[in-house]
Inverse folding.
């Protein structure tokens, strides 16, 4: 997986793909930032006839007896991210942090922010969530 030192290499490769038109749906690279792991991918959004660059990192397992307090905390964190990323729970029993932007007109600054900020935020919050809801839920 790409470590933080090589995340900029990944950003450069994606920017090259944006420039030469080779960044298309199906692109996927694993990433890792601290204890948060996930991927950067390009996916099709057929509903809007566009492709999106998506950064998704898994943070923890959903606590076995997750109650309203757990889900309320995820919603609070969604609100605090000011629309830059969102937490979700998937059927695989994991909590994810996801951010995405349309490929078209994506500029280098946005791409850097998308990948680096999202991965940094995920790494910071997984530890906080595990402290609040149990380290036994660590991945």
């Amino acid at each position: 997986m790409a470590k933080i030192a090589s995340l900029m290499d990944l950003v450069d490769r994606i920017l090259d793909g944006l420039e030469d038109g080779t960044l298309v749906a199906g692109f996927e690279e694993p990433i890792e930032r601290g204890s948060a792991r996930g991927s950067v991918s390009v996916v099709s959004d057929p509903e809007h006839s566009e492709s999106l660059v998506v950064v998704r990192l898994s943070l923890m397992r959903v606590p076995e007896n997750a109650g309203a307090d757990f889900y309320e905390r995820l919603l609070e964190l969604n609100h605090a991210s000011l629309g830059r990323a969102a937490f979700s729970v998937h059927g695989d029993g994991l909590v994810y942090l996801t951010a995405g932007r349309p490929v078209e007109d994506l500029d280098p600054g946005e791409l850097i922010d998308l990948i680096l900020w999202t991965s940094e935020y995920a790494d910071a919050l997984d530890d906080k969530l595990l402290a609040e809801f149990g380290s036994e839920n660590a991945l």
User: Anything to note?
Assistant: The chain is about 40% helix and 30% strand. The mean pLDDT is 90.
